[in-house]
Amino acid sequence: MNRHIKQRTLKIITWIFLSLLSLMIIIPLCWMVISGFKSNGDLFTNSFGFPKEWLVGNYTLAWKVGVGKYFVNSVLVTVVSTVLTVFFSAMAAFALTNHRLAFKGRQVVFVFILAGLMLAPQVSVIPLFKMLTNLKLYNTYWAMIVPYVAFRIPFAVFLMRAYFLGLPVSLDDAAYIDGCNSFGVFRKIVLPLSKPILASAALLTAMYDWNEFMMAMIFTSNDAIRTIPVGVMNLTGTLRTEWGTLIAALTLSAIPIIIVFFIFQKQFVRGIAAGSIKG
After folding, report:
1. HSE of 243 in the Cβ direction (CA atoms, 13 Å)?
2. pTM
């Protein structure tokens, strides 16, 4: 009986904690959506209430000036960066876990890759700027894509390696016996079995790439190729800023990632859970 009471109490406490955590996330999102309909005066005098007048024009202006103009650029940079990051990270993780590809110093290589997690992007801005300029990549889409891929690979490899270590070795051996080479095993066996972790890595990478501001600002000067985070800056003024329109732009820029998360949430949760307990 006591054990049953303890389990029930623990379950109630867990639900309360998760409910509070959900409210901490949902309430700011709701505030952001509602505040996007307010004027400056309404926003400052009635911050947490409903607007006296619902200014739908805030969202229209935010789309025209700060989001819609740069939407295609953000989608292009995010998709290309995410695909390249997941592909190269999966190949690296496979090479670091497959027993047929074992080589001396494999753990050293893994630690070297993980060392990238300790490098802050801000520290590398100047050398990256010079490198991209010398390679004539400055002010192109690749000026954003290349750094994004480089800085997301360490974390993606870390996730995928842990997941790949939990895959049955017997499947690899059976594929090799049937005449498959290493790339065939990777493409036909490992990738189909790793959809959850691939989805998790892709979603986390896409979130980073979609919201990244610093590199997109520094490595590009052509307004035609800039992404949404930089475009939102157009809504800020030197003497006056329409905060309702700015918040509306932030809301619109968050919607695509929220939609993608809801579509792949099951795969995301499965991948994170599996990758965190294996290896």
Report:
1. 12
2. 0.85
Number of domain units in the chain = 1
Q: How many helices (H) and strands (E) does the chain have?
A: 14, 0
Distance CA 44, CA 74 (A): 31
DSSP 74-101: HHHHHHHHHHHHHHHHHHHHHHHH-GGG
pLDDT of residue 23: 92
Residue in the block written with tokens 């695909």 = 83
Say how far apart CA 73 and CA 212 lie, in whole Å: 13
Span of 9-18, 141-150, 184-193 with lowest mean pLDDT: 184-193
In the structure, what pLDDT confidence band is assigned to residue 279 with cuts at 50, 70 and 90? very low
CATH number at residue 149: 1.10.3720.10
- Return the residue matching tokens 């065939």: 184
Burial class (CB within 10 angstroms; exposed 0-12, middle 13-18, buried 19+) of 235: buried
**Residue span of the structural domain in which 183 resides:** 58-277
